[in-house]
Fold:
Amino acid sequence: MSQLDGKRVVITGGGSGIGADMAQAFAEAGADVVITGRRGGPLEEVAARHPSISYAVADVTQEDDMASLFEHLGEVDIVIANAGAAESAPLIRTELEQWQRMLEVNLTGVFLTLREGLKRLRDGGRLIAVASTAGLKGYPYVAPYCAAKHGVVGLVRALAQEVAGRDITVNALCPGFTETPLLEASVATIVAKTGQTAEQARAHLQSTNPGGRLVQPAEVTATALWLCGPHSGAIHGQAISISGGET
Structure:
């Protein structure tokens, strides 16, 4: 019998990167996995990798989308709020639209996912938010992203207090710079704005992690699987750094 046999898992932002890696691993562990995102094409590609993965197109920033998604799914066991996006600019050149966009995707999206997921969560359920080390410390030129991710950590800690005493855990994962398409987009931005080569930009981001290397999606996934395992019930209200060292 697999670790997650019979469990229904919802993963937002499941069309690429960490979300796609989680979908594959959770399905292989026996779960019935539903991935969501705004674009059907990437979701369909990930779902084709395993018969226990299905998908639904939904925007985490839209209240109606998330309410309809969970109403359709019914009871769930594990909800992973993974969808996110990153943009960079000096604060003095950050437009209000960019600020609001980063908060909507990275914070409001997590709020709506966890709120609707909690309504449908079975006893023994797990709520997980994928935050970032940007939720634990500051990084230059991504102030809106940092603010949103700090908000995610605060949201998780507050919700953990609300559900304390119930058979539910709520935690945040805080990866450092991770080998994903989001990182590749950051590399492209650095190249365009600074004239560095892609190799130089990648080396800079890599050096920001205490371990001096990029985090792999599988390392984040392994932590999520552990939080959903049989001996993790005492891990609650935590922001777990996955970065190779102190942040």
In short: The radius of gyration is 17 Å. The domain at 8-176+216-242 is CATH 3.40.50.720 (Rossmann fold). The chain has two domains: 8-176+216-242, 177-214.
